[in-house]
Specification:
single chain, alpha/beta, Rossmann fold, Fe-only Hydrogenase (Larger Subunit), Chain L, domain 3, 2 domains, five-stranded mixed sheet, four-stranded parallel sheet, 17 helices, 14% strand
Amino acid sequence: MKCDNCTKKMYDFRLAVHLLQWVEAINSVECNKKQKNGDGQNAPVDVLSSNEENAEPSEFHKLANSKIFLSDCLACDSCVTSDEAARVFQQNQKEFFHVLNLNKKCDTSKHKVLAVSICPQSLPYFAAKFNLCVTEAAKRLCGFLKCLGVHYVFDTTIAADFSILESQKEFVQRYRNQNQEEHALPMFASACPGWIQYAERVLSSLVTPHICTAKSPQQIMGSLIKGYFARQQNLSSDKIFHIIVAPCYDKKLEALREDVYAPLYHSQDVDCVLTSGEVFQVMEQRKVSLKEAAEVPFDTLFGGINESDLMRHDGRRSDGYLEHIFKHAAKELFDTEVKELTYKVLKNKDFQEVTLEKGGETVLRFAAAYGFRNIQNMVLKLKKGKCSYHFVEVLACPGGCLNGKGQAQTEDGKPDKALLKQMEEVYAAVPVQLPETNGHVQKLYQEWLEGMDSVKVQQSLHTKYSSEKPVANSLDIKW
């Protein structure tokens, strides 16, 4: 049964999950939102399983168990179910240290290979926190994690390369078929899990046919680690415990998706997501400064280490889907080389557009819509048939991925503007690399995917979206 009150506060679940995760740093947190009809329906539910309650003490055994109120946005399947809330909560530092502790036991049957994949937007957080350049912060973070007992540390940029390349190909195909396919354009980006959850659970068939089918970098990295890398190491996927370090909490929910689950091994492609802030809490708990950690290069999927400097994509605060797809489309469709994009700010700095003119006609019109207020406006235009954009880079967090709630907030939950400015500066200093020029990606297309246009590419790099019945009045939400 769907709850109108839940729907009208749609994606306050992001705040609920955010508050829930911070219990690792404080004694207790309640996701207790005010209801219009009183508080009588609120009942606390313990989100910890009995197995976790009886687990042996870890280095975080003093952290208090949290109780949340499963009302409002967590009350029905329009948003996040109670089961999902419990499973999201279990992705925390306790689970990480539980695996580390098991690896120290004599029973090798319970040992796991610990692999950590770090999102490129998380690294500026550590660089800004400790006044380091991004490359040095990455190497010291790698050294710190390996000091804890992690076996492999990877950079997820390679997964974003795949996602961007597949998104570029799909956009060109959609553009060329726009007169034959009803939902070809606009194409919405698929990298943000908060946006995808909102689109699937609330907007449904109005929007899902327009979402790019390319998997997100996190999903692709999960396939790389539990698929290609596992085979390279002669391991079954369930013997690898794969952790993603990310800037936002929504990625914890993304890790639970059914399309990234291997039923043969009862294993998710991503076992646990820790936010940048949660990793920083581990450092604080151990009284360690990142500057004290040894510099250790990232590992590669091919069994060696990566001695080269880190690279990023051509995005200001994200993986740069808009920039890369726009430049690729201009070249592929109109034989036009675009070196720099000129953004036009519309209603606010989180809603901007870029256009390409040919012969006095606008042939490409792209937009960046960050934050749910701008997303809602975009969806309302689509509903009314007035959305003139060919592509929209959609991100749930205002300000983009660098401003994720798992790293760019003060202790009282407000945006840390000073820290965000520092992150933007150090991120901008990282050199840009085009996905097409990454030799490792080209190698993996052949070794892992059997070619760039193979069936395996569709299976491993693309996904499908559910189309549940839209919630009544879901487009009337006021953000």
